[in-house]
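pipeline: protein-struct stage 2 | run 1193 | WYL domain-containing protein
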Amino acid sequence: MLETSSRLLTLLALLQSRPAWPGSELAERLDVSGRTIRNDIDRLRELGYPIEAVRGPTGYYRMGAGAKLPPLLLDDEEAVAVAIGLRAGRGVAGIEDSAARALTKLEQVLPHRLRRQVTAVHEAVSEGPANTGTNVADPVVDAAVLATVAAAIRDSELLRFEYSAPERTDSAPRRNDASAPFGDWPVLVEPYRLVSWERHWYLVARGTETGQWHTYRVDWISLRMATNRRFTPTPFPGGDYTSFVLRDVATAGWKVHARITVLAPAQDVLARINPAVGVVEAVDESTSVLVTGADSLEIIAVYVGMLGLDFHVTEPPGLVEHVRTLGERYLRAIR
């Protein structure tokens, strides 16, 4: 029979390993009486663990939700997985400090053998630059904003926020709200899904008045007072939130957008890009238009050159200038 302290830890580990345990099964596992199990449950409750009891012939014990986070028992594999995940989390904008604090606490209590495993993985992995596809700094998203938006999605609660979309250098209209001016404006939406892509967070939501679906960058969102108003969810057309975000961002979700005439059939252009991150429009059998965007003109100028196809750029003026600069630079490189 286990000593009391060891038995309590074993009992706690069992309760945290699955949703429900009949008292008789716990007693059998720990080789004690049902009365001892009840006494041990009371001791754990005194230590702050919110253990609930469901009575009756099919009764059971389960770990409930408490007012504060009690100590959590992890097995070896779980502890190593959490530690590795927290190391990766330190590179996610908005939660670096929280992840670092949690990792420090965890590593302080890890047994030596497990700490060596975590350290071995960390030392064996080389991390590339956090930002490899743009010359613009990664946006920082407040973890509290993400949590609030996620809760509104979970509870089907209308979300109100100010949307501070930066001024665009091109003349294309925004699709977030055709009637609203550029800059800050109040938005009231039905939130449905958060999508993380290319170091950015996006909210897929439906307009309460128009019924139209839109994509909003979370780092451009400033939450306003909670609405406490529920809505009845509407099925999303097609059901693929991620593809919708990729398509919507290509045409309206970047700081800079461009329509580039490509001297090639639409199918040839589509074969060279991910169709979800650029919209290709056929003009005729030998010409098409690529609608794409990025957070800077320099990035578009580089990406369009990587198509490997002849193209023509007329707007925005800044993109024309960047393409001209790149062309002259490449010519100088071979003279």
